[in-house]
Specification:
The chain is built from 1 helix and 2 strands, in the order H-E-E. It is α+β, with helices and mostly antiparallel strands. The mean pLDDT is 78.
Length: 59
Amino acid sequence: MPITPTTAASLKTAHTLTVVRAHLAFAADARRLGHEHGPWDWTPEVSHSIGEGERVRCR
């Protein structure tokens, strides 16, 4: 049975939340230690379809 876009999106939700929560913990620790760290110092992983089942990941 093929996975629909809706199903694929729902499977990614938990992963996305985990990554964002990990970054928030990293940012809070960096701030606590006095390190420079702003909202643009991190980019979530983005995956794009390039056809025929292949994908490319951008960071």
